[in-house]
Write a structure and sequence with these properties.
Layout lengths: L10 E4 L5 E4 L2 E5 L11 E5 L7 E8 L4 E5 L2 E5 L13 E2 L1 E7 L4 E8 L2 E8 L19 E3 L4 E5 L9 H4 L2 E2 L3 E8 L1
Family: Belongs to the peptidase S26 family.
Keywords: Cell membrane, Hydrolase, Membrane, Protease, Transmembrane, Transmembrane helix
InterPro entries: LexA/Signal_pep-like_sf (IPR036286), Pept_S26A_signal_pept_1 (IPR000223), Peptidase_S26 (IPR019533), Sign_pep_all-beta_subdom (IPR019766)
């Protein structure tokens, strides 16, 4: 999750309303989720391919959204929930350069809805499109998020195993949201 969370960072996670309560790795209670998950939230979850493993990633898309990732740029077509929603076409997730080194490593400021955060990309690293999760009925590098699921990505985009590679995050796997880090 660099540059947002560096290796060794400590986090406080709010579990209230997520319905997936564990203690020392053991499931204590499972109930209906009442918390609102928003684009840009950093969530803690049970990795879908190995629920014993706990991961953290940033929520990029919500159920019903269409996500496209091409040339290190995100495009989102938000799901229409209200007739007044602006969801008619894809919008690019804005990125602005914060810093860049001589090796092509860039820190970019990204704005997704009300959330703004920094991501790390390497212009010299090719996207591994051939390894992307392939959704039936969608082109490679494009996904439509099913109900009860989320699309998550790491902030270190070229070094993250995330929804691009293993698919959608089921709502039942959510444990909580990061509310503080140091």
């Amino acid at each position: 999750m660099a540059p947002t969370l560096e290796k060794g960072s400590q986090v406080v996670v709010s579990k209230l309303g997520y319905g997936n309560y564990q203690y020392l790795g053991q499931q204590v209670l499972k109930s209906e989720m009442t918390a609102e998950v928003r684009r840009g939230d950093i969530v803690v979850f049970q990795y879908p391919q190995n629920p014993q493993s706990i991961w953290m990633k940033r929520v990029i898309g919500l159920a019903g959204d269409r996500v496209v990732y091409r040339n290190k740029t995100l495009y989102i077509k938000k799901a229409c929930k209200q007739p007044t929603d602006n969801c008619s076409d894809y919008s690019v997730i804005e990125q602005s350069l914060v810093s860049q080194d001589e090796n092509g490593l860039k820190i970019l400021q990204e704005a997704n809805e009300d959330s703004s955060y920094q991501i790390l990309v390497n212009d010299n690293h090719m996207d591994l499109i051939s390894h992307y999760f392939s959704q039936v009925g969608s082109r490679h590098g494009e996904w439509e998020i099913p109900q009860g699921h989320y699309f998550v990505m790491g902030d270190s985009r070229d070094n993250s195993s995330d929804s691009r590679y293993w698919g959608f995050l089921p709502e039942d796997n959510l444990i909580g949201k990061v509310i503080l880090s140091w």
